[in-house]
Write a structure and sequence with these properties.
The protein has 12 helices and 2 strands. The chain has 321 residues and is an all-alpha fold. Strands 1-2 form a two-stranded antiparallel sheet. α2 runs antiparallel to α7, α3 packs antiparallel against α4 and α3 runs antiparallel to α8.
Length: 321
């Protein structure tokens, strides 16, 4: 809201210092608060899961709160944005409570919470923007019945929350992939749509993630936990919706979809329909890459980032052409 107090030229400097401040606050608070965060218990079935045992978990509590506070201060205020920030904080809080719980929350409990958050976000979007979206590349506008649009938007948000959560299993992977995906949306907001507000918002999240990655780069000192991954998944889905081209999620977050989504699909088909797929493939795919293909953690992170960067860049190049 500080931009309201200054001229346009001064507001640009305020935005600059806001980004720097968000990075510094994230780093300072993560260092100061890491000892009071819950500790990771290790994951028995994950590749190298034992290496995370005892590390502070739930760092998403810190960088998501810094992001929300900075967004309220340095991004032009909108009622719609305020609701989204509240939902991002709610997704973070539900993840943090799960991170810190002695008994992990059940899948159905977490799924229901995610669905409620998804409904609020989908309903809010339609209320402020209408049930309209644009087709990829062509930009052709399509209008859907409101109930159908809300349902599809809910599915997008729910899927994004959960595939992002499933991808958080290698030091630096989820945070780095989120940065690449967010940067892709940033280009669309600033160069295609001319949406300065959401461009600033996207950069703020990137900056906060960079502060987190300062401590999470392999070998990590702390982990984002569900507090970070669930909020990030929601944020990326909201960027896709606000871009006016929600199908961009399929392009800019394809690695999240494949890495985390295939595991969700595999489990769902087996549990509800007794159908077995990908029998010889470990999921999430980052575990298959490390265990079956022999990739190191660093190779896994960089190669997944390279794949996402190539796909995002190819789309942006085609869009510019």
């Amino acid at each position: 809201m500080l931009y309201l107090l200054f001229s346009d030229s001064a507001a640009k400097w305020i935005a600059f210092f806001g980004l720097v401040l968000a990075f510094l606050l994230t780093c300072i608070l993560l260092r100061a608060l890491q000892n009071i965060l819950p500790r990771d218990g290790g994951r028995a079935f994950a590749v190298n899961g034992i290496l995370s045992q005892g590390k502070p978990r739930g760092a998403g509590l810190v960088f998501i709160l810094v992001f929300c506070a900075a967004a309220l201060l340095f991004v032009p205020f909108e009622r719609e944005l305020l609701i989204y920030l509240i939902m991002i904080a709610a997704a973070m809080l539900s993840g943090y409570l799960d991170d810190s719980s002695k008994t992990p929350w059940g899948e159905y409990k977490k799924g229901l919470i995610d669905m409620l958050i998804a409904f609020v976000c989908a309903y809010t979007f339609v209320n402020f923007n209408g049930p309209v979206f644009s087709v990829l590349l062509t930009g052709t506008a399509v209008t859907l019945p409101k109930p159908l649009f809300i349902l599809l938007a809910m599915i997008l948000v729910w899927v994004s929350i959960n595939v992002t959560n499933c991808t958080d299993g290698v030091d630096g992977l989820c945070g780095s992939l989120s940065i690449v995906s967010a940067l892709s949306f940033y280009v669309v907001f600033t160069q295609v749509l001319g949406n300065r507000s959401y461009g600033q918002l996207t950069l703020l999240m990137i900056i906060c993630l960079l502060g987190y990655l300062w401590f999470n780069a392999s070998p990590s000192k702390l982990l984002m936990g569900d507090a970070g991954s669930r909020a990030l998944g929601l944020f990326l889905a909201l960027l896709a919706l606000k871009s006016g081209r929600p199908l961009l999620y399929l392009v800019f977050c394809i690695v999240f979809i494949l890495d985390g989504g295939l595991g969700l699909l595999k489990v769902a088909l087996l549990r509800f329909l007794k159908i077995k797929i990908l029998k010889n493939t470990r999921t999430p795919l980052h575990d298959h890459a490390r265990k079956n293909s022999g990739w190191s953690d660093t190779q896994t992170v960089f190669r997944f980032l390279i794949i996402q960067t190539v796909i995002s860049s190819a789309y942006l190049y085609a869009l510019a052409g």
